[in-house]
Amino acid sequence: MTSHIQKVAQAAYKLFSRLGSDLKVSPSHEGLSEIARLFSQLRETDVFEPNSKLLYRDKKLLPDMDEHEAPVTYIPIWDDKVLTLCMFILKKGSRLPMHDHPDMYGFLKVLHGSLTITSYSPCLDPSPPLPTSLAARFKYLPVKPLGKKTISASDDCVVLTPESGNIHEITAESEPAAFIDILAPPYDSEGRPCTYYSVIPNRYSDSNITYLIKIPSPPDYWCNEEQYTGPDFNLHDV
Ligand SMILES: [Fe+2]
């Protein structure tokens, strides 16, 4: 029997493998909607064993998180030139710092607990620049703030595109929170690197524009890696 995770992964692989790695051709709206529909139906039990140690061992650590434990667990599921499928488990209060998804499509589905996502879109139109004195000090990126949204396992997946919502910070609001990501095309250190950002607080920001600067990976963020234990599948046969 085809597992639900396999169904979603196959649908995404079919759509994105036809487009080539540079995505010069955009995926169809119908194709993206179908992946979002299937992904929104994915549940914790589709990918984690009952009482999975990966999820439930964290409860024992709360509220006093062991300072030596990584705040985030990364679980790779699939990664090739077409797409990345992976999961993250965040301990309470931990976060994936603000980062981008350059020229990528992304689907994020909460599987356990709840998360707050603060999102921004790239400014596609020429945007008002910072005054020269500030611009000289910072190599800044103007972005459009989309606000904060708290989502839980009962909510539909979040979809981001190269034009919308592809810079975000993700914070765990609950007991361990877990989510699963489909990213296409995948990150690539040469062409599509993952960059971290911080907001430049200044009086020129408003509800339409925020200025970000690139930062190194913040010291409060690091991951340990665990093995995926859900249903097996192979997308190369799709
Ligand atoms: Fe992300």
Automatic annotation (TrEMBL):
GO MF term (any one): metal ion binding
Matches recorded under CDD domains: cupin_ADO
Pfam families membership: PCO_ADO
Origin organism lineage: Eukaryota, Metazoa, Spiralia, Lophotrochozoa, Mollusca
Full protein name: 2-aminoethanethiol dioxygenase
Organism of derivation: Sinanodonta woodiana (Chinese pond mussel)
Gene3D superfamilies referenced in this protein's UniProt entry, alphabetically: Jelly Rolls
Organism domain of life: Eukaryota
InterPro entries in UniProt: PCO/ADO, RmlC-like_jellyroll, RmlC_Cupin_sf
Keywords: Iron, Metal-binding, Oxidoreductase
SUPFAM superfamilies cross-referenced by the UniProt entry: RmlC-like cupins
